[in-house]
Specification:
Blueprint lengths: L1 H7 L1 E2 L15 E5 L2 E8 L6 H4 L4 E3 L2 E2 L11 H14 L15 H7 E5 L2 H10 L3 H7 L2 E3 L8 H6 L1 H9 L6 E6 L8 H10 L1 E7 L5 H7 L6 H13 L3 E9 L7 H13 L4 E6 L4 H14 L4 H7 L8 H18 L2 E2 L11 H14 L4
Parallel strand pairs: 3-6, 4-7, 7-8, 8-9, 9-10, 10-11, 11-12
Antiparallel strand pairs: 1-3, 2-3, 5-6
Bound molecules: iron/sulfur cluster.
Iron/sulfur cluster (SF4) binds next to loops.
Length: 364
């Protein structure tokens, strides 16, 4: 599993080492209610074997300040925090705190920064075989947490990674984000696009601003994301939309899907993919109480719909896919695959996107 592999490659080493030999994570900076810590990973590139999928992944940050109610990546943060509290004294002000707030909130407010990520990517690409592999297998930035979350404005780790990737030719790069901050890097993105194959996936589950604010309280507005899509497309960059997850009873009304697809098409997005909410145990712990508080009329329906597993029924999923297909066809936008035109009708690309979607449906 991608995130587990990610954590296993992230050492708990931190400076300064304390006199008693125990190690703690240094706080780099604080901004309002968010505290940033330095993580020192041995590696930031997880290969296809580690991800369990057909692609590589890079996540410059652990934790994500966007705080989406349905996010499943929260558990990775807890896993790291628990390891940290074992490595350092409980109550140590410099350790990643685990007792001052619930783990699901610490995921949003205690962000670990992989400052050496660009250099680690450079080193990885220098190893025999890695560069060749990236010509066959896509490296996806942001599979677990958003690479353009607010921390990126300050630390510019994602940009640093992209600068390194831009030095290469013929590789395959994808980025997943909810943030229009990605357009800040349009210069380096254009360089990658000229020399390699680049796709940007903008996550957008609704264009209803009020509902988005409840579900994704600190994420950029839908309008800002649509503007980002238009800007990236105007720069010739392949940019699609991941409508993941579709939330039963909240974002799946026919008129909402119609409006979403119409808006995405108007922004000139290359394609749209969609996947119903999957509720793994870790997402369930946060999402179901959230539903009880914000959408109490849906609480029982959710408990029933996800009573026996992490997926909603096959009938629902098939119906959802069918609806998207019809609405996308009506609006003239590709559903569930890249739209690279007749000359690049790449079967592999479709399979890769499906595999990616299967994973991302859990998180973004
Ligand atoms: S779903 Fe994505 S953007 Fe939202 S909190 Fe999780 S990692 Fe961040």
């Amino acid at each position: 599993m991608d995130i587990k592999a990610e954590q296993e490659q992230t050492t708990l080493f931190a400076e300064p080492e304390r006199p008693d030999g125990r190690r703690v994570l240094p706080v780099i900076e604080e901004q309002k209610d968010i505290r940033y810590f330095a993580a020192t990973p041995r590696s930031v590139m997880n290969g296809p074997k580690a991800t369990g999928m057909g692609f590589w992944s890079i996540n410059p940050y652990i934790g994500c300040a966007f705080g989406c109610a349905y996010c499943y990546a929260r558990y990775a943060h807890r896993y790291t925090a628990e390891r940290l509290s074992t490595a350092a004294d409980h109550g140590d002000a410099d350790a990643l705190p685990t007792d001052e707030m619930p783990p699901w909130l610490a995921f949003e407010r205690r962000i670990m920064i992989k400052r050496e990520a660009p250099e680690l990517v450079r080193r990885a690409l220098a190893r025999p075989g890695t560069l060749e592999a990236l010509r066959r297998e896509t490296v996806v930035i942001g599979t677990a947490t958003d690479p353009y979350q607010p921390a990126e404005r300050r630390f510019r780790i994602t940009r640093g990674v992209l600068e390194v990737l831009a030095e290469q030719t013929g590789i395959r790069v994808a980025i997943i984000t909810k943030s229009p901050l990605v357009t800040r890097d349009v210069d380096v993105l254009r360089r990658i696009n000229e020399r390699s194959r680049l796709t940007i996936h903008i996550s957008l589950i609704t264009v209803d601003r009020e509902i988005a604010r409840i579900l994704e309280p600190r994420a950029p507005t839908p309008e800002a994301r649509l503007r980002a899509i238009a800007r990236l497309r105007a720069n010739g960059i392949e940019t699609g939309v991941n409508c993941m997850p579709v939330l039963p009873g909240i974002t799946d009304a026919p008129e909402m899907i119609e409006e979403l697809v119409r808006s995405v098409k108007a922004a000139d997005a290359s394609y749209i993919s969609a996947c119903a909410l999957r509720l793994q145990a870790t997402a369930r712990d946060r999402y179901l109480p959230f539903i009880a508080a914000e959408f109490p009329e849906l609480a029982k329906k959710y408990s029933r719909a996800y009573a026996t597993g992490y997926q909603v029924s096959e009938k629902y999923r098939d119906g959802l896919a069918e609806r998207f297909k019809i609405v996308c066809a009506r609006n003239g936008i590709a559903f569930g695959r890249h739209n690279r035109g007749a000359d690049d009708d790449d079967e592999d690309e479709e399979i890769e996107l499906e595999a990616m979607s299967a994973q991302l449906g859990l998180q973004i």
